């Protein structure tokens, strides 16, 4: 069974590119939305296994949606979320007790535009998201991050364990 991914981004061309490239792998089915509000409705309707979420969008931003989905009482709190943001090398991190976007952050890895563990931890702490990829990105980097997050979150939730054999 294919893994369901929801892409929420205000750039229709990017949504289509992600849909085509992710589905081309044969591992994923992809649904897209160009607004946080529409994306939230699709979360309930499609129950995705993973969400790729733009942070900066008109109206409600991605970080607000991530906070809503990751609340303790939300049925979607365990759904992995990867922030895919046009902030470039600006990474959300804690400074002076508050979380803010900081330019020229040293926590961006050299392997493309993927924030390293410190950046991912700051995002996870702030929003409960599972990783971060900055735009522009290489598709192979995004695919790698998607695979890493799915592997990591399935181990945490126990979904990768084989079913127990029935007693004979």
TrEMBL record:
SMART domains: REC (SM00448). The keyword Electron transport does not apply. Pfam families: Response_reg (PF00072). Keywords: Phosphoprotein. Residues 4-150 form the Response regulatory domain. One of its GO terms (biological process) is phosphorelay signal transduction system. This is Response regulatory domain-containing protein. The lineage of its organism: Bacteria, Candidatus Sungiibacteriota.
